[in-house]
């Protein structure tokens, strides 16, 4: 069997990881960029999105697509509201002090995890994808003239392709909001200089609550997209947290384009490397590489020099 | 009474109090306290770097695990006796902390936090990767017969308690002394204002490296002692969770105080112990109390005590 088809398949799987990772990491990056807050509970908001998605989808009857659309609308909104409330109740009161924020968000992590365990239970639960046609992928062959072949086993599903399309569209919408709308302008102003923004009458506290909620909602959106493929589980927050951390730092703290590029890099390399090598070894090498990138370039790929 | 004498009394008093507790406490709490004293050594090691030097590491599980596996593998695979195995644990923690510290200190701030986290994650994955020797997540047990130091059976409750107490006291007293030496003062100077320390002529980079290495060594001592006294080594001890725990202990107890790590470890241990006896949702209680403490006791328990009642607390 040729190497090519395998590579294509691995790239596709990697692209799905990258798409979901980009959404989650952009949420984390946004929160860090605007508020200078390291949100250790970010992975739990991802988990919350997945779990809520299951709740919503299992309570909506009829065609699975109905439940999925409902989940897509409700789960991120709820996760965002919970996060905004947490910001209002806790983070605002400790004045976003870096060390105390870390402890407070670790506390939130415990609360969310235990809350999910108590209401949702310890089982991994699936959500039915809204559509799931099997698509066979063609592969060009040059033996005896050019023609397309359909190698056995080379295929994906329409839903997996949809994840990629959806993530790209959401990121484009987010970019448009940040670059073109008034809310985006306010967020960027707060990011540049919080005190100055306050002086110009921007309600910085409300912007912070909104941004914290938006970051959580983006993580939850990523989770809603992935549960039809991966199942929801109350301990699923750990991996996305760690990976988003890596992505955000590699991309350059607070830089959204950098975050997306880093998500692509890490998602694709993870997909490709773990197909051809032992997954654990691949992870060790990737982790060490990340560490060395940072040692050589502490500001990340697209980050600015230390502030 | 001078501040020095008060501080000396406190540092001698705590080990004496812990020794006295042995004769009063029921067996269950005695076992808990042995465990707490070993883990408090880990917290004290962490506090040296975080509380005194102001460097936030998220990778201390690497050093804890280095000590644990240094001793554990030497005994498990090499059949080495406890004393040299303990030294092997210390040596591996020292080397790993020295090397990772040298590399990670090229970064500062959040990047330092992430680089240490990444190194620890690579260490955790390495333990999993060499599962044939380390038995991965499942871990391995160090047989009771091998845990015998100078003819003393370390598995006996009383001997385990006093071994833990000895280790704890030595490090507690040593740290109480260290933070008042010029080196200890230099650590604090870097925490308070790195630029000014540099302008005063301190070799900041080298002093930070000392802090990481010493801190890693103490963490490794705790890991090695944990494996020796409780007879088990597993990959969980190398996971992210074990990097976060000392941070919590130190912050809860009061960072930058000598007594804080012990207070925080006792508090967190009994919080989870007590909460899990009344509800299965003990993590929920732990989470709520963590959030409340950060809101109302920003300096940690000992830090609040120092702020409100005993300003001389070292």
UniProtKB/TrEMBL annotation, chain A:
Q: Name one GO biological process term.
A: amino acid transport
* Listed GO MF terms: transmembrane transporter activity
Q: What is the membrane topology here?
A: Multi-pass membrane protein
Q: Name one Pfam family in it.
A: BPD_transp_2
Q: Does the keyword Transmembrane helix apply?
A: yes
Instruction: Classify the source by domain of life.
Output: Bacteria
This entry carries the following GO cellular component terms, namely: plasma membrane
Fetch the InterPro entries from UniProt: ABC_transp_permease, BCAA_transport_permease
Query: What residues form the membrane-spanning segments?
Result: 6-33, 45-62, 68-90, 102-121, 159-178, 207-229, 241-268, 275-296
Alphabetized, the UniProt keywords read: Amino-acid transport, Cell membrane, Membrane, Transmembrane, Transmembrane helix, Transport
Subcellular locations according to the entry = Cell membrane
Q: Which family does it belong to?
A: Belongs to the binding-protein-dependent transport system permease family. LivHM subfamily.
What is this protein's record name? Branched-chain amino acid ABC transporter permease
- Name its species: Algicella marina
Q: Which taxonomic lineage does the organism of this UniProt entry have?
A: Bacteria, Pseudomonadati, Pseudomonadota, Alphaproteobacteria, Rhodobacterales
Automatic annotation (TrEMBL), chain B:
Tell me the organism.
Algicella marina
Q: Which cellular components does GO assign to this protein?
A: plasma membrane
- Organism taxonomic ancestry: Bacteria, Pseudomonadati, Pseudomonadota, Alphaproteobacteria, Rhodobacterales
Lineage top rank: taxon:
Bacteria
One Pfam family here: BPD_transp_2
- Which of UniProt's keywords are assigned here? Cell membrane, Membrane, Transmembrane, Transmembrane helix
PANTHER family hit by this protein: ABC TRANSPORTER ATP-BINDING PROTEIN, HIGH-AFFINITY BRANCHED-CHAIN AMINO ACID TRANSPORT SYSTEM PERMEASE
Residues annotated as transmembrane: 9-29, 49-71, 83-104, 110-130, 159-179, 209-235, 247-272, 278-298
Please give the name of this protein.
Branched-chain amino acid ABC transporter permease
Q: Could you tell me the membrane topology recorded for this protein?
A: Multi-pass membrane protein
The cellular location(s) given in this protein's UniProt record come to:
Cell membrane
InterPro entries hit by this protein:
ABC_transp_permease (IPR001851), LivM-like (IPR043428)
According to its UniProt record, where is this protein mainly located?
membrane
């Amino acid at each position: 069997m040729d190497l090519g088809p395998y590579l294509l398949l691995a790239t596709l799987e990697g692209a799905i990881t990258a798409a979901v990772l980009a959404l989650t990491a952009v949420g984390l990056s946004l929160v860090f960029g605007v508020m200078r807050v390291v949100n250790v509970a970010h992975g739990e908001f991802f988990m919350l999105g997945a779990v809520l998605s299951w709740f919503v989808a299992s309570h909506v009857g009829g065609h699975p697509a109905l439940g999925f659309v409902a989940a897509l609308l409700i789960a991120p909104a709820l996760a965002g509201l919970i996060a905004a409330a947490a910001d209002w109740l806790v983070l605002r009161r400790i004045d976003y002090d870096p060390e105390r924020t870390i402890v407070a968000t670790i506390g939130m992590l415990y609360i969310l995890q235990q809350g999910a365990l108590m209401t949702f239970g310890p089982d991994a639960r699936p959500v039915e994808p809204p559509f799931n046609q099997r698509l066979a992928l063609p592969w060009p062959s040059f033996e005896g003239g050019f023609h397309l072949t359909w190698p056995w086993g080379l295929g994906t599903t329409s839903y997996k392709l949809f994840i990629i399309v959806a993530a790209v569209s959401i990121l484009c919408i987010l970019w448009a909001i940040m670059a073109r709308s008034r809310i985006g302008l306010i967020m960027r102003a707060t990011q540049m200089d919080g005190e100055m923004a306050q002086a110009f009458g921007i309600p910085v506290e409300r912007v912070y609550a909104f941004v914290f909620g938006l970051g959580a909602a983006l993580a939850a959106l990523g989770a809603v997209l992935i549960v039809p493929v991966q199942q929801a589980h109350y301990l699923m927050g750990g991996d996305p947290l760690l990976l988003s951390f890596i992505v955000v730092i590699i991309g350059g703290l607070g830089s959204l384009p950098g975050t997306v590029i880093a998500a692509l890099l890490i998602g694709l390399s993870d997909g490709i490397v773990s197909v051809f090598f032992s997954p654990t070894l691949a992870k060790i090498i990737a982790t060490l590489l990340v560490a060395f990138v940072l040692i050589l370039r502490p500001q990340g790929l697209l980050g600015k020099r230390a502030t | 009474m001078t501040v020095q004498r008060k501080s000396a009394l406190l540092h001698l008093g705590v080990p004496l109090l812990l020794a006295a507790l042995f004769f009063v406490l029921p067996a269950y709490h005695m076992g808990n306290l042995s465990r707490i004293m070993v883990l408090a050594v880990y917290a004290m090691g962490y506090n040296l770097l975080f509380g005194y030097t102001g460097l936030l590491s998220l990778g201390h599980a690497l050093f804890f695990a280095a000590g644990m596996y240094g001793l554990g593998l030497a005994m498990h695979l090499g059949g080495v006796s406890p004393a040299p195995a303990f030294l092997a644990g210390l040596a591996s923690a020292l080397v790993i902390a020295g090397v990772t510290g040298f590399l990670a200190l090229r970064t500062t701030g959040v990047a330092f936090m992430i680089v240490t986290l990444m190194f620890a994650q690579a260490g955790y994955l390495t333990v999993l990767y060499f599962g044939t020797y380390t038995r991965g997540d499942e871990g391995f047990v160090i047989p009771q017969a091998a845990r015998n130091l100078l003819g003393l059976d370390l598995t006996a409750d009383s001997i385990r308690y006093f071994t833990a107490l000895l280790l704890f006291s030595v490090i507690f007293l040593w740290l109480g002394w260290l933070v008042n030496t010029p080196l200890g003062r230099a650590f604090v100077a870097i925490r308070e204002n790195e630029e000014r320390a540099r302008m005063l002529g301190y070799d900041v980079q080298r002093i930070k490296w000392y802090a990481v290495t010493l801190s890693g060594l103490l963490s490794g001592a705790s890991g090695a002692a944990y494996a020796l006294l409780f007879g088990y080594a597993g990959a969980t001890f190398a996971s992210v969770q074990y990097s976060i725990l000392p941070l919590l202990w130190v912050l809860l107890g009061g960072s930058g105080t000598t007594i804080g790590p012990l207070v925080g470890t006792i508090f967190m241990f009994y919080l989870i112990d007590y909460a899990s006896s009344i509800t299965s949702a003990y993590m929920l209680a732990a989470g709520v109390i963590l959030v409340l403490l950060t809101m109302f006791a920003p300096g940690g328990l000992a830090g609040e005590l120092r702020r409100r009642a005993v300003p001389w607390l070292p």
